[in-house]
Amino acid sequence: MTDQFPALPAAQLVVPSAKAVRAARANAKRMQPLRAEKASPTTARVYLYAEIGGWFGVLAEDFAAEVNALEVDQIHLHVNSPGGSAFDGLAMANVLRQHDAKVIAHVDGLAASAASLVILGADEIVMEPGSQLMVHDAWAACIGNAADMTKTASILDKLCTDMAGLYAVRAGGTPQEWRAVMLEETWYTATEAVDAGLADRVSADAPGGRQDAAAAAAAWDLSMFAHAPEPHTAAHSAPQSPAASATGSTPSAAAASGSEDTHDEGSTLMDLTESQVAALCNAVGVGVDADPDTIVAAVQEALTERAEQPEERPAAQDDETTVRVDRDMFDQLRADAALGRKAHEAQLRAARERTVDAAVSEGRIAPARRDAWLARLEADPEDEQQLARLEPVFNTTEHGHAGDIDLDGDTALAKQVGWADNEQEAS
């Protein structure tokens, strides 16, 4: 053990608990080596079916070497891990985040503890059928005096606070809310992980031909955890997530993943020209400077007032509440109403983009989560209040900038040391 920590005095040696060591040894016999392989010239798959870091797991440096050697456009990371070293997990997440390829993380069986940190570095997180995810406060054990233990506790608390901030960036909510979830050692099923915002979607692929996710997760020794399901494949009802509690309801899968869209791929909302807006306003009797809500309301009112009367009522029975219009006029009114609705939707979309872009520029959410938040606000505009409550996680403050060389300052300094006079004498 001592050769693993040659630079640390014994009083500052941080080691895992005896229970964790026993479980790690058992898991070491079950784990598979880190494996990376190309699925096509532009796609690669990386399999992390092992503990993370420590004495028995995959080290961050080995993970970085495998991933950085992949010159592809897309990486599929397959994870089945009970966790391990939090710092190794954070390092692996940053390796994924810094890679040029798009990274899609698949939780094939279990992503617990540090493994849940690794997948945060992916652009998209997919829960395979039967898989589970667990978050908790990090552990450590310290051999030393009271001061050493107090210092270790402080370091551990800061680490857990940082981890809570990362979960908040991915899923929404506040770091304080996620810290409370971590303290409870919360286990999520595949669907619950998506509802909580920790994953983007549950894979719709049929399980045939793949390793059974529940069986894969059950292969790990999870005795070191306080609330691990027994058996592990049993469903575990997770407490309400911060993302859900902030709005009083569980976010939909579409809102959490950001992967669904109400429009066909490649389509865009129609942009109205000024002349089209003017024509629409004239048709429904409102001013050209009216806002979209007024235009839409006027169109709807016009349709109600001018709708064609039912065929069973003879023309002789027309009254003050019924107005007949010909088919061409009716069709034109319907088309105008559709244009008004599209104009309104375009303005709402622009407002959502301004809100999310502001959150990105202020460091409250990561740029990679922009599309997910746009979809989330489209599904539930009330989530804008939750976005506004997020605290900045990324520092976007300017710390300095390049500029012209201060020649006047250099000349003054040269005069003080006598260089300027010597230069003149030499000339």
UniProtKB/TrEMBL annotation:
Keywords: Cytoplasm, Hydrolase, Protease, Serine protease. Residues 231-267 are annotated as: Disordered. One of its GO terms (molecular function) is serine-type endopeptidase activity. One of its GO terms (cellular component) is endopeptidase Clp complex. The keyword Cytoplasm applies. Residues 231-259 have a biased composition (Low complexity). Transmembrane segments: none annotated. One of its GO terms (biological process) is protein quality control for misfolded or incompletely synthesized proteins. It holds the Pfam family CLP_protease. The keyword Protease applies. Gene3D superfamilies: 2-enoyl-CoA Hydratase, Chain A, domain 1. Belongs to the peptidase S14 family. This is ATP-dependent Clp protease proteolytic subunit. It comes from Metallococcus carri. The lineage of its organism: Bacteria, Bacillati, Actinomycetota, Actinomycetes, Micrococcales.
